[in-house]
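// run 5 | inverse folding | seed 20
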């Protein structure tokens, strides 16, 4: 009996763990493509073959329409897709340039015509002015925008200020969502929760800008499956069918920068003394270097890789204070020549 009770407790704990994992896993950053297939008279076409191809990796997933002529493919990663629909005795319909951002639901309907010969109709998908599939108000920033937009740092979360519903909080790096503090926001990285459990902000673990596929923000009217007052979802890039890479070097230094407010305040409040006769020249030198590479794994089918590397290092001054008078044996000129602003490298 004792062993049975222990076994029952273990089973209950396992079930509770699975249920909790399912609850936290309800909100997803995967998209859906659905639609209805009809003929020229408006009658639905059941059992039509639907092939959805990922343009990035050139991989395809297949399904068929049901008795009502509807089809749905869910669990699609953000990217560009192509939908091909065929039916016996009907022409082939192909819709290209279907863009999925985050958990978007895109409707791709098709009208097939009777055709004796092999006929293909290719349509380029255009984003509708109003999304009738989902009432969620969201903002998506692509990798190209993240890399090329003017910025002052390589912090991906600094792009959140592009959303009109997000403003800066009490200090730099804190956010307000629709006027609320960030404690109620939910940050995720590739579908995994990355919210600081103590302060309710994002964690310090964030990928390089070269590795980010998109930054998606759900700010209004999103589904109840996404908890919090807002959802900030970072999705990393994935490998593709062709090799692509990048390299970068960023530098920010005091020689090309204007004086900051604290420098001007220091100049106005500075009082010369026997150690420092003039206000020291501000000095800093920040460097970022790295790159990325992605493509197919040689010799392995339907397997791709993506890797990114970034290293940043800075040279900034260190203030040395001494409240003791120097020894009379040390010449005053030697003290004046010694600058308290010593560059130090930190990695």
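// decoded
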């Amino acid at each position: 009996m004792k062993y049975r009770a222990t076994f029952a407790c273990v089973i209950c704990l396992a079930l509770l763990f699975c249920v909790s994992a399912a609850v936290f896993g309800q909100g997803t950053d995967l998209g859906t493509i659905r639609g209805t297939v009809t003929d020229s008279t408006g009658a639905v076409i059941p059992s039509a073959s639907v092939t959805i191809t990922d343009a990035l990796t050139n991989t395809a997933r297949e399904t068929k329409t049901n008795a009502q002529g509807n089809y749905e493919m869910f669990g699609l990663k953000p990217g560009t897709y192509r939908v091909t629909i065929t039916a016996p005795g009907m022409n082939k319909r192909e819709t290209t340039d279907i863009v999925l951002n985050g958990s978007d639901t895109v409707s791709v309907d098709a009208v097939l015509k009777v055709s004796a010969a092999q006929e293909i109709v290719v349509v380029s998908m255009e984003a509708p002015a109003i999304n009738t599939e989902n009432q969620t108000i969201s903002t998506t920033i692509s990798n190209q925008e993240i890399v090329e937009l003017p910025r002052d740092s390589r912090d991906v979360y600094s792009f959140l200020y592009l959303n009109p519903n997000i403003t800066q909080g009490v200090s730099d790096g804190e956010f307000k969502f629709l006027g609320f503090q960030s404690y109620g926001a939910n940050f995720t990285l590739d579908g995994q929760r990355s919210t600081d459990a103590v302060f309710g902000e994002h964690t310090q673990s964030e990928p390089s800008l070269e590795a980010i596929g998109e930054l998606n923000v759900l700010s209004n009217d999103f589904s109840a499956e996404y908890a919090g007052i807002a959802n900030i979802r970072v999705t990393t890039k994935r490998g593709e069918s062709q090799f692509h890479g990048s390299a970068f070097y960023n530098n920010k230094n005091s020689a090309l920068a204007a004086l900051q407010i604290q420098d001007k305040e220091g100049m106005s409040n500075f009082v010369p003394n026997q150690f420092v006769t003039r206000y020291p020249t501000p000095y800093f030198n920040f460097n970022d270097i790295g790159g990325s590479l992605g493509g197919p794994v040689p010799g392995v089918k339907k397997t791709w890789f993506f890797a990114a590397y970034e290293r940043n290092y800075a040279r900034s001054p260190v203030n040395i204070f001494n409240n003791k008078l120097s020894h009379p044996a040390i010449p005053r000129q030697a003290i004046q020549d010694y600058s308290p602003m010593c560059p130090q490298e930190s990695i």
